[in-house]
Amino acid sequence: MPVATPTRRAALPVVDAHAPNGAPVDHAAAAARFTADEPRTDWHDGALWFVREKRDRQAASLPEWEQLRELASQIKEHTLSHLDEYLIRFEERATANGIRVHWARDATEHNRVVHGILTAAGSRRLVKSKSMLTEECRLNSYLAERDIDVIDSDLGERIVQLRGEPPSHIVLPAIHLKKEEVGETFHTHLGTERGLADPQALTAAARAHLREHLLAGDAALTGVNFAVAETGGFVVCTNEGNADLAAALAPVHIASMGIEKLIPRAEDLGVFTRLLTRSATGQPVTVYTSHFHGPRRGQEMHLVLVDNGRSVQLGREGFWRSLKCIRCAACINTCPVYRRSGGHSYGSTIPGPIGSVLTPGMDLKRYGALPFASTLCGSCAAVCPVKIDLDAQLYRWRQLVADAGHAGVSKAAAMKTTGWLLARPRLFRAAGAFGRLALRVLPARARRLAAGPWGRARDLPPAPAQSFHAWYAARERAGGAAGRGEGPGA
Amino acid sequence: MTASTSERAARTVGAVGRVALFVPCFVDQFYPRVAIAALTVLERLGFAVDVPESAVCCGQPAANAGFARAGDAALGALASAYARADRVVVLSGSCAAHVRAHAAGRVAGRAVEFAAFLHDDIGVDAVAALGARLPRRVGLHIGCHGLRGLGLARPTELQVPPFNKLRALLETVRGVEFADLARPDECCGFGGTFAVAQPALSAKIGRDRLRDYTASGADVVVSTDMSCMMHLGGLAHRAGVSLPMVHLAEVIAGDS
Prior knowledge:
The complex is a heterodimer. Chain A is an alpha/beta fold. Chain A is built from 22 helices and 10 strands.
């Protein structure tokens, strides 16, 4: 297969996962656009449901699954409750291991630290391996502006990078794309033949292309799945081995981690590695679970500890448990809304239920729609391997969004009127009688219009002549149920 | 919950219990037949049933939309209407879950969903004694709040021994066969105000749920939640699909 010379960076558009110009994310509109293509929606839903079913089979294969979830939840809650102590311990041990530890308060500081390391080492080509944190910090565009070549080496990430799109999923970044679309992308950027859609051939092309970049990289950046306070080491989980290859080849290894990724002891690790991949992709374990404890001879190893809003979230009673998240995406895969609206509709780095809980705290006005992108069905919380009460947190965010006046003027007025009416039984029943009468006498077309957004795809049930309470009152007047208050009616 | 069969029989046949029934706003207005069926079932089981007039809604629509304070006025009215009831049977899993989660110190601990009340407090034997019959292939629908919020059945995410209170109750009904769904507890997409805020997505999720019922050969859908049924029934009607949506109470009362 002919593989063209490596793509020049200038050809790559700069990716911004977030809404343009800071405009509020309109999930409903984006979702309506996504579902407009129904066969594609079905395909997307089916692909994610397939993963959810694989997860179910793997979870069912461990009799101790629910105990593992409970244990993982407790370990995380304990760690988060003593995060300051564990972070200091981790820094001490990591430093003793020869890792240079950096602290970053926010995205800008993180990007500045990474750029500083690259500049000091004279690195111009950074090979990245799957780090949602650097997506969150928008590192790629920051470095691109400073003339540093950034290559995402994870296949899915590379595909979306070539297309100039943000990942649509945190574990399966290109799950929104069909193999034909990947073939088209590779034809444009890698010079593969037009119309190529065989996954194996496409993977081979990507492999050859990525290997050139992996060999040419003079610095590697990886994410961190778990960092262990006791040992000062960290663990990176991948299925493609790209993190290992990048880190093993490059003279500089930078690891970026959110401060919530910490666990206390090495022996806790097994609890999480057993849960992570089973929950994520339905595999018993990732193909590569790499443990880094210090630089190899002649290598520099840096670790950047990033806050970027996490300590604020930690201080939010009612939301701090969201930091237990181990980024498995099980909640995303199971969410009926995500499956049918796609990751891009969320306009945030992390889509789905966990993203809708983590993101509003960054900018309530911009991301105020996300807690409403849910039916509150609770599947996310039930599937979560660390037992985050996601639906309850979505409910709480809704109250804060409405309190802050971001729920929309007409909705606020409607809900206040509704609440007022629902607390007044007589008035409600009078309004109900009027409404039912209207529904009975109006022609079908007018009924649909009267039903508003409800009536676009659904009919209202036929309106009965009498409400239950009217029926009941009439029965009471007539003497009530047979035997009422005198003995068993059965 | 631990009462033996004989104890349950004694309680339901011998001594008369007294319960209060809460009929949610939309059931009151659109599905009086369901509330009448629930009342009939409770009375035939030997209960004297109170239905106070001064409560219409649990306030969930406003609360889920972010206006919990607006909804709390309705919840407060409900709590005072049922202040003296020992047991409040709520005719909706979704409303029952809301009351239990958000009416702390008021009626939360005394509120119980209709199917849970039949299964846990009355027992399936007493329900079987009512002799209902439904020679149909039944697709079950337990609303998400009833399923995961109240524990009416084991959701597919959890790795615990399977149980399904709705199914156990329907197994006492003669002639019932069960349809096997590809996704037994997929959300129907109603989600209260979600149905209006995101009509396209809500309808899509609902159409998928309907397709699962028709593909599995169900000829009736039986639920504990008329809100889900209002949504799915509205989609079915618009699509010209004939698939009756009934409440468990109607099946047990024998008039579905």
